[in-house]
Amino acid sequence: MESIIASGLAQLLSRNCGEAAPALLAEYGQALLEKNQVMDLTAITDPTDVATLHMLDCAALLNCGDFSEKNLIDVGSGAGFPGMVLQLLVPSLSVTVLDSLQKRLTWLDELAGNFGLPLRTVHGRAEEAGQDPAYREQFDLATARAVADLRLLSELCLPFVRVGGQFLAMKSADSAAELDAAQTAIQTLGGEVTHLYDYTIPHTQVTHRIIVIEKRRPTPAVYPRRWAKMQKKPL
What we know:
Blueprint: H1 2-12, H2 21-35, H3 47-59, E1 71-75, H4 83-89, E2 94-99, H5 102-115, E3 120-123, H6 126-129, E4 139-144, H7 150-157, E5 161-172, H8 176-188, E6 191-200, E7 207-215, H9 227-232
Parallel strand pairs: 1-2, 1-4, 2-3, 4-5
Antiparallel strand pairs: 5-7, 6-7
Helix pairs in contact: 1-2, 1-3, 2-3, 7-8
């Protein structure tokens, strides 16, 4: 994994993440595969695929801006993607990972401790945490690497972002129709799409897209709504 990650980072990123980064990401990947034998963390179990489809895919976010000295919330982080990857690559980034399953967060806490990282975990649902003053509009950056429709993801994630910050939505490259359908939701929630970053993951033929949404105005207090209401009537 380490050699694949090292060459992939060199191809993918315009910035240098330090000599230790490939080894750290490979160690994370190995820990993921070991823990996956007793806990459902990922359906990707081939080490090469872990290196490319998890580590390098998440690393692509760093081409979307300066992450140094920022604070970021990873919504629905699961096994730590992209939050843990970004924390390993940018030690000065303050990362909070939010997930609804405590056992995944417990594992991430242990892993962060082993790496000596300041990663913070929060157990809860995004639609509830987004109404909590401790988290609402408190972050420079929000990320989500999820299959949920962008209308729903925007309602879940934009409330966490301060005005002037960004929501980085990781999507497939053929997400144009989904993005068009989400424009009303994004604007209602105080956001504006400022950039689309398409990239091919090194050592693969997989092309993904990062939708960069800047927070222009505060999110109206009514959002996020309850999950069932979001699903029933997306913005």
